[in-house]
Amino acid sequence: MNNFKDESFRAIRVEEVAPGKFDQLLVKRQVTDLPDNPLLLSVSHSSLNFKDAMSAFGNRSITRVYPHTPGIDAVGKVLEDRSGTFKAGTELLVTGYDLGMNAPGGLAEMVAIPPGWALPLPQGLTARESMALGTAGLTAALCIEKLLESGAVPEDGEVLVTGATGGVGSIAVALLAKLGFRVAAVTGKLEAADFLTELGAWKVLDRDTLAPFASKAMAKPLWAWAVDTVGGETLFNVIKSLAYGGGVAACGMAAGAQFHANVFPFILRGISLLGVDSVELPIGKKIAVWRQLSNEWYIGDKLSMIAEDISLEQTPEFLARLHRGHGIGRYVVNMSL
User: Fold this and answer.
1) For residue 168, which of 60, 51, 309 has the smallest C-alpha distance?
2) Which residues fall within 8 angstroms of residue 100, CB to CB, at 6 or more apart?
3) Where do the DSSP E strands lie in the chain?
4) How far is Cα of residue 177 from the mean position of the Cα atoms in its chain?
């Protein structure tokens, strides 16, 4: 970092301006403001995730100390690596670990990170495509991998995807459709039904479809498998309505971190609840999944529909949109705009 200590860069800075009130500002920062980590990247693209919105609006279960720069995803070129792991100019991809949570994140033109957090940009993906996928795409792929490992095949029947217009949900719809599954996409935004159909959804359902199951110990088996991105009571309503031997990959908590449950779906239908984490995943596993996303699971034709490009200046507006639950698809932050 010594060679770049006089460099400045733009970043989103979240500040607590009054107790419980947080502003998201575009500021100039110095490289010397960054942690003294060996790997310094010039960020070309980042992306917005719901976790970034929570951090940007003061959720201390995500970020403990403010001021702070969110952004759990970044892609860019190596400016310097004092560890000797990567050569200058190498294009690297970073998702998860502590990036954008308690370490300054990717909503900035530079990041300084441990080399163990980064992997080479997979051949077959552009920098923009890697951020159109980002943590959301990695998580969606891990969910589908869990279902496949549990024996899911298209002949089993429909796969339910909750939160289908969100980042993870929309990519899960596209990936499942590519693999030949019939996808039932659940959303609270029925005005986006055409969007989901274009991604490959076989049918689009209002999220209220699941509400009547809340008062029942079990529901009629409707779906073979599921990807749940929202958590809360929705998750167990999905579990109640899965067919015998099915399972749900669970990866989100936008609807809450808790739900009421009973044992009947597990002991009478053999249902599996499959937890998915993409944050602390070992780097070797991340590399393998990203390689898959750049090859046999490549959905570049759909990413242009899923992801919208925004500038760093626009980021506070779109973080607020995500925080209010009004986001659709993915938002790629292009530092050159």
Assistant:
1) 51
2) 51, 52, 55, 69, 70, 71, 72, 73, 106, 107
3) 8-18, 21-30, 39-48, 73-81, 91-95, 110-113, 118-120, 159-161, 183-187, 203-206, 223-228, 242-250, 272-275, 307-310, 330-334
4) 19
Tokens 């289908």 -> residue? 164
Q: What are 115-165's pLDDT values in tens digits? A: 999 999 999 999 999 999 999 999 999 999 999 999 999 999 999 999 999
Please say whether the beta carbons of 248 and 226 come within 8 A: yes
Alpha carbon 169 to chain centroid, angstroms: 9
Tokens of 16: 């607590």
Nearest to 234 by CA among 135, 323, 166: 166
Domains in the chain, ordered, with CATH?
2-121+305-334 (3.90.180.10), 134-275 (3.40.50.720)
Predicted TM-score of the model (pTM): 0.96
Q: If you average pLDDT over every residue of the chain, what do you get? A: 96
The SS3 assignment for 56 reads: helix
CA distance 303 to 264: 39
* CA separation for the pair 30, 94 (Å, rounded): 21
Go through 268-287 and write b for each residue having 16 or more CB atoms within 10 A of its CB, e for each that does not. Answer: ebebbbbebebeebeeeebe
> How does DSSP assign 188-232, residue by residue?
S-GGGHHHHHHHT-SEEEEGGGGGGGGG-SS----EEEEEESS-H
Chain center to CA of 247: 21
For the sheet containing 223-228, what is the strand order? 203-206, 183-187, 159-161, 223-228, 242-250, 272-275
pLDDT in tens, 264-313: 999 999 999 999 999 999 999 999 999 999 999 999 999 999 999 999 99
